[in-house]
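seq as requested:
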Amino acid sequence: MPDVLTLYRPTGLKEYQLIEEHGVFPPRLDHQPIFYPVLNEDYAVEIANKWNTKDKVSGYVGIVTRFDVDAGYAGRFNREVVGNSTHEELWVPARELDEFNAHIIGEIEVAQVFYGSEYAGPVIRCD
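C-alpha cells:
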C-alpha cells in the first residue's frame, strides 16, 4: 500500500451532496480554477465554522470532509500557506481533479459538521 497523506476539505451543502452521490469531489465551476484541500483539520474547521455557516451559497452549513490520498501523487502539487502557518492548502488545478479523485484511497468521510442559525436542511452525520 502506498504512503498516504490525510487531507481535509471544508464544503457547503451542495458540494457535500454531490460527494455523497458520486463518491468523489465534483468538478470545479468555471470560476474555480483550483481545487484546494487543506492539510490540517483545524484550518478546515475554521473555514467550515466561521465562513460556510454564514454563507447562503454553502446552505449555512460547514462540513469538514477527511480523506486519504496517495502521498507520492499528492507531492506533485504546490503547498500554499494562505494566512498563518496553519492555513496550508494543496493547490490542485481543476483540470486535474478527475485524476486526483482516482488517487484517493478509501472513502471521503465527514469529520465534523457545523450548522448556522439559518440552516434548514437535513442532519448530516459524522463518520
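Strands lie at 4-11, 34-35, 61-70, 78-81, 88-93, 104-115.
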